[in-house]
Amino acid sequence: MLDAAMPYGRDFLARNGMTGINCGCGRALAAGCLNVDEKEFSDPQGATSAPGRILRIELGDQALYYMQHDLAQPFPFADGCFSWGYSEHFIEHVPPLQAIGWLKEMRRLIAPGGLLRVTTPDLGKYVQGYADPKQAFFKRHLERLEALAPGRSWAAPRRAWMVNQVFQFYGHQWIYDFEELAHAAGKAGFDPKGITQAGFQSGRLEAAFMLDSAERSDETLYVDIET
Predict the structure, then answer these.
(1) pTM over 0.85
(2) Which residue, 55, 202, 208, 226, is the most exposed by fewest CB within 10 angstroms?
(3) Residue 5 lies inside a defined structural domain of this protein
């Protein structure tokens, strides 16, 4: 564990290589940022995370950082302590009001002139897919679903099933299109002029967009939000 007084400040985080914050990371830890998820994490040496504490994980000559934290709660960090933030397929797992609360907290933590990148399943792609008589998106996405869970026959090539699964499975609470996500960000206090749609591994900040994972790219909405 890193030893420092809370709230953690910008100088301490930057000195240890954490210029960004990666929220809802699961087990996919990234370098150059603080990775945050609510689950307990143990490193290869047997050290285990603790709520609110930063766990340093040594992998060869690389150091990764992880914090076990409930993303619905305030973070033990000073204002403006990060230069950028990122979340991949996290925001759809919480109710809308809680999502706005998390966005407000990101606006507090990321310094002015920084960037928050949010990715999430794109409701627009599902609606367009349902209306497409050739079902091009649904056919491609069904292949990805089956690749993620090989040997299971739970997926179905019906249009209604393909739409319903994104709402009903995986613990999803709310599915966004760009307009809906921009609305939530506006409610959290972000300037609407600084909210733009981006693409897979492209956008305003390489450190953030290179965290996009290819396996989710076909269904994903990518949004960059200036702070």
Answers:
(1) yes
(2) 202
(3) no
115 and 202: one domain?
yes
How many Å from the N-terminal Cα to the C-terminal Cα in the chain? 30
Q: Same domain, yes or no, for 197 and 158?
A: no
Phi, psi dihedral angles at 48 (to 5 degrees)? -120, 145
Quote the CA–CA distance of 96 and 78 in Å, as a whole number: 25
pLDDT value of residue 152: 62
State which H helix or E strand residue 182 sits in. Answer: helix 178-187
pLDDT for 104 equals 98
Give me the pLDDT at residue 59, please.
81
* Strand-pair category, 110-121 with 220-226: antiparallel
pLDDT at 172: 97
Co-location of 89 and 33 in the same domain: yes
82 and 142, same domain (yes or no): no
Residues 214, 140 share a domain: no
Using 50 as the pLDDT threshold, list the residues of the chain that sit under it: none
If we measure between CA atoms, which residue out of 205, 183, 213 comes closest to residue 97?
A: 183
User: How far from 221 is each of 15, 154, 168, 198, CA to CA, in Å?
Assistant: 33, 25, 19, 8
The residue among 225, 213, 222 whose CA lies nearest residue 84 is 225
| Structural domain boundaries, residue 151 | 123-168
